[in-house]
Amino acid sequence: MEENGSSRRSFNLVRLATFVVPLLLITTASHAQLTTNFYKNTCPNVESIVRSAVSLKFQQTFVTAPATLRLFFHDCFVRGCDASVLLSSPNSKAEKDHPDNLSLAGDGFDTVIKAKAALDRDPRCRNQVSCTDILALATRDVVVLAGGPSYPVELGRRDGRISTIASVQHRLPHPEFNLDQLNSMFASRGLTQTDMIALSGAHTLGFSHCSRFSKRIYNFSPQRRIDPALNPSYAFELRQMCPLGVDPRIAINMDPNTPRTFDNVYFKNLQQGKGLFTSDQILFTDGRSKSTVDLFASNPKAFEQAFINAMTKLGRVGVLTGKQGEIRLDCTRIN
C-alpha cells in the first residue's frame, strides 16, 4: 500500500512539473469568494475542532506557535496561500526542500496534520476543509495562545497541486534586506509598508540560528567587525551565545526580552538597537519607517489592529477557490 502511494505521488509530481505556471502573487479577485462562514453547512464546528487540536499541540511544545505562524507566511509568500509548502516530494524537489525553507520547524507541519486528523474524525467534516484553510485557522489560534489578538479568518481557499524548489527562489525576504527590498517584495503581494512592519512584528516569537546573522557580529565590513546599528551590549551577548567555531545552527530567540509572548516588545527592541536581523533593525534606522515602529512600540492596540489587517490581506494572496484547486485528502500530497 505504501509502495502504491509512493508511486502515485511520484507520478503526480512529475506530471505536474511539466506545466509552466506563472507565479501570480498579488491579491486577486478570488479572495472575494472567501467568507468567514464558508463551512457553515459542511463543517459547522470547523473553528472549535481546529482550535482544540492546536491547543493540545501548543500544550506539548511552545514551538508550535512560531513554527505555525512562520509556515503560514512562507506558504502565502511563494505561490500564494495554497498549502503548497506542505507537499512532500519523493526526490526532495518540493518547496519545503528549498534552503530557505529547511529551517521551518516540524511542529508547524505537525500542527496542520493533527488539526486535519481531528476534522476527519468528525463525519460531517471529513475531507471537507482544505489544508490551506486549516493552516490559516491554526495560525490565528497560535497567535491567540501566545497572547496575541484574535481575529476572524476568511475561509474558502482550495489547496494547490504544484510545489517546486524553483518556486521559492527569490520569493522570501532575507535577513540582510534593506527597506526598499522589503517594500518591493511585500508590494508585489499587495501589501503596504505598514503591513510589512506589522507582519515583521511576528518576530516577537520564535528563534533563528547564528548563521543567519553572524556577519553582523563578526564581519560586518572591512572597516567594522560589528554592525554599528546593533546595541553594543546586545552584540556582546550574541557573540557569547554564538561563538566562532561553534555549531551555527544554535537557536537564538528573536526577541531577547519576551520570546514566548506575542506583544509589541519587538518594536521596543528595535528602538534600543536590538533587532536580530538587518531587515529588522532597518525598520527603525530608516526614517521612512521609524515613525511606524515608534507608534507600534508605544501603542500595542495600534500594532494589534495593523497586524490583524495585514494577516487578513496576507491570507488573500494568490488564493485558489472553487475548481481552481482541491481539498487534499492528505495534506502532504495531491489527490
From TrEMBL:
Residues annotated as binding heme b: H203
Q: Where in the cell is it found?
A: Secreted
Its function, per the record, reads:
Removal of H(2)O(2), oxidation of toxic reductants, biosynthesis and degradation of lignin, suberization, auxin catabolism, response to environmental stresses such as wounding, pathogen attack and oxidative stress. These functions might be dependent on each isozyme/isoform in each plant tissue.
Name the site position(s) for Transition state stabilizer: R70
The EC number of this protein is: 1.11.1.7
- List ligand-binding residues for Ca(2+) 1: D75, V78, G80, D82, S84, E95
Q: Which residues form the signal peptide?
A: 1-32
Q: Indicate the segments forming the Plant heme peroxidase family profile domain, all copies.
A: 33-335
GO molecular function terms attached to this record: heme binding; lactoperoxidase activity; metal ion binding
Record GO biological process: hydrogen peroxide catabolic process; response to oxidative stress
User: One Gene Ontology cellular component annotation?
Assistant: extracellular region
- Report the active site residues: H74
Disulfide partners: C43-C125, C76-C81, C131-C331, C210-C242
What family is this protein classified in?
A: Belongs to the peroxidase family. Ascorbate peroxidase subfamily. Belongs to the peroxidase family. Classical plant (class III) peroxidase subfamily.
Could you tell me what this protein is called? Peroxidase
Positions binding substrate in this chain are P173
